């Protein structure tokens, strides 16, 4: 029987790798973000029911991502392993926070989040210096905030949500 530590490590590995999407041979961060795209409508449903419940669910997802990323950095023995994509998942969920759900908004958020995640404008780059799981996740949360604001501008300019 596996020890409790091994079980926790296995759960952390599953979460950190975005249900193994982080093992994609190319662009694992993009594949991880796609997991976020799949989760966004469920989170939007929670937001429609209660803004407070949404914030709690998002906060829990972020806390789980930080924990899983911290464990994964020890498993992979790297500061920010490429297989760890839970940061992209929660970053994308931040990018979609309180936005209308539609193919357009999901696509705009996806493209803008990937842009900000890859280019890492300040303070995204600086957030990578945070210790452990925080350094893995917080830069993506900042990229998600940038993307959320940019999608709001795109929608305000008349881009369709469809």
Structure notes:
This protein is mainly α and 162 residues long. It has one domain. 72% of the residues lie in helices and 0% in strands. Helix 3 runs antiparallel to helix 4, helix 3 crosses helix 7 and helix 5 packs across helix 7. The radius of gyration is 15 Å and the shape is globular. The N and C termini lie far apart (50 Å).
Q: How many β-strand runs?
A: 0
Give the helix level as a range of percent: over 70%
Which ranges are low-confidence, i.e. pLDDT below 50, for 5 or more consecutive residues? none
Biggest sheet architecture: none
The averaged pLDDT comes out at 95
Beta-strand percentage range = under 5%
Count of the separate structural domains = 1
Q: How many distinct helices?
A: 7
**Which radius of gyration do the C-alpha atoms yield?**
15 Å
Overall geometry comes to: globular
The SSE order reads HHHHHHH
In short:
With 162 residues, the chain is mostly helical.
Key attributes of the depicted protein:
72% helix, 7 helices, 162 residues, mainly alpha
What is this structure's SSE topology?
Layout: H1 4-16, H2 28-49, H3 51-76, H4 86-95, H5 103-119, H6 124-127, H7 132-156
């Amino acid at each position: 029987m596996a020890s409790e530590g091994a079980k926790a490590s296995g759960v952390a590995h599953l979460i950190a790798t975005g249900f193994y999407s982080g093992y994609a041979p190319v662009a694992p961060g993009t594949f991880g973000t796609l997991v976020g795209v799949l989760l966004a409508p469920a989170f939007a449903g929670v937001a429609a029911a209660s803004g407070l419940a949404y914030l709690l669910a998002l906060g829990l997802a972020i806390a789980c991502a930080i924990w899983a990323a911290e464990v994964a950095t020890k498993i992979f023995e790297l500061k920010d392993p490429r297989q760890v994509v839970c940061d992209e998942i929660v970053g994308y969920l931040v990018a979609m926070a309180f936005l209308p759900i539609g193919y357009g908004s999901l696509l705009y958020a996806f493209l803008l989040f990937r842009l900000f995640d890859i280019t890492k404008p300040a303070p995204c780059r600086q957030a990578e210096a945070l210790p452990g799981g925080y350094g893995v996740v917080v830069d993506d949360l900042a990229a998600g905030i940038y993307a959320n604001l940019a999608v709001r501008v795109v929608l305000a300019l008349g881009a369709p949500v469809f």
